[in-house]
Amino acid sequence: MEYLKYLVDNEYWYFELDEDRYATKQIVIDDKGYHLSCFEDSLAEGVVDPDGFDGDGISRWISSDEFYSEWNHFLSMHAEAWNATKAKYAIGSLCSGHTKAFYPQGQIIEGTDFMGICPIESGSIHEVKDYVVISYDESNMWLILKNV
Question: Are residues 29 and 51 in the same domain?
């Protein structure tokens, strides 16, 4: 993984990039607050080119420690809700949700009170399906789901 920080117009963008330079996690900090790709559809689309940003921004490579210091800081604000989600959706539980987005990790599923990932990409945006909880992705606060 590689980590990139980009500053433009008082916005900070942090990226976790895989070996092909697709974003797998992203943080945006702007005048409205912070936005994490695990909660919002805010993940960069396509390959992230550190020299290809529009405008007069500044990009620099950062360490995983710097990225995760920011990521975990914002994620910690949701710890109580995440623990309640895991209590409600124990492994083996059934749930229903719609496809919100497709990420490199798989299909992002949004339920009324949870976010999940279904590693097998099948279906289309907004399609509602039933799932079973097979595990948890603690780093993203996602239920790991399997189609029923």
Answer: yes
